[in-house]
Amino acid sequence: MEDTIRQISIWALPVLAAVVLHEVAHGYVANHFGDPTAARMGRLTLNPLAHIDLFGTVLLPLLLIVVGAPFLFGYAKPVPVNFYNLNRPKRDMIWVALAGPVTNILLAAASVYALRFVGLAGGSLPLFIATPLALMAQGSVRINVMLAAFNLFPIPPLDGGRVLVGLLPEPYSSSVARVEPYGFLIIVLLLMTHLLDFFMGPLVYFVIRLLRGLVV
């Protein structure tokens, strides 16, 4: 029980920051390209209460921590985007979709630098401060890279699927877009059969190694 509470205290802030900023980034970029839907609904705020999904932001990460899962995952309430409001819907859809994963990669990079800072600080920081900071930074790197990799999988309604729809010419883009109603079912099947691991595993490993290599 004590270890579970410790894990929750370490992971709570990194998970919350990762999922909330991911969604806010979608909304900001959509607003920039002409769709004010998220702004009008008050979703361009850093107040986590506006974005928390009971299952995706609280229960799912908590369950994964309790069962000792080898990975941690979560999500916030999706920011509403009306792609028809965008200045150039097909092109702008790509930037709106990429905003979330790119934000997660930037957060992961910032966390690597934070981890490096804690290491360089050495004994100047009290152990009771340095240890949780280092553990939270490590957790932040992992959750943000995993969230980015998962969302870049090219199946609608994931961000990677929307990027693919925006990049493909007709009639191929419309064919991919028609997969969206079945997208989450396909993703669940891929997760259950571990086929998604072949995509996420190498990508997560590569990105984490790359980010750590940039901080020397």
List the helices and strands and how they pair.
Elements: H1 2-32, H2 37-40, H3 54-66, H4 89-121, H5 127-151, H6 159-167, H7 172-177, H8 183-192, H9 197-214
Helix pairs in contact: 1-3, 1-4, 1-5, 4-5, 4-6, 5-9
Instruction: State the domain count.
Output: 1
Total helical elements: 9
Distance between the termini: 37 Å
Rg of Cα set: 18 Å
- The geometry reads as globular
Describe the structure.
With 216 residues, this protein is mainly α. It has one domain (2-214). The chain has nine helices and no strands. The chain has helices at residues 2-32, 37-40, 54-66, 89-121, 127-151, 159-167, 172-177, 183-192, 197-214.
Give a brief outline of the structure.
The chain has 216 residues and is mainly alpha-helical.
Characteristics of this structure?
globular
